[in-house]
Amino acid sequence: MNIRPAAPADVAAIRALVSAAFGRDGEADIVEAVRAAGDALVELVAGDSGEIVGHVLFNRMTCAEALAGLAPLSVAPTHQSKGIGAALARAGLDACRGLGIQGCVVLGDPAYYGRFGFARAPATLSSPYAHLDAFQALPFESGVFDRPLAAAYPSDFG
Description:
Blueprint: E1 2-5, H1 11-22, H2 26-36, E2 40-48, E3 51-60, E4 67-75, H3 84-98, E5 103-107, H4 110-114, E6 119-120, E7 125-126, E8 135-139, E9 149-150
Helix pairs in contact: 1-2
């Protein structure tokens, strides 16, 4: 498996992959809208024998601090449970750190994302999703969530 930055030539394959992974087009529409708006911070694909089998997008959050939002993370149904999603998540988190991003949020399964260090978002982080256990945060810098912050996803998340 090879993980690399997404390229313009990958757009159609990414759309097909994300739609297949979620069983609908909504998440693929979000990926394309975030990309078109210039809100993508990190976008990676995983390839296997020349085929794109995984994708992850980290978007810019509207916040007083430099935060990334992980969403969506997609793996082809035929390639799930092989560690591809975990490898993409780790590579993307490392890339965000390399960009000087101070922390990351995700709206997802706590058991899955907990293995990357995510925990329920602290009460200091306000968001329309803050009341959900699935809204989680991962600080890259000490103290980033110590003071009250409001974090908003790009408008394309609906």
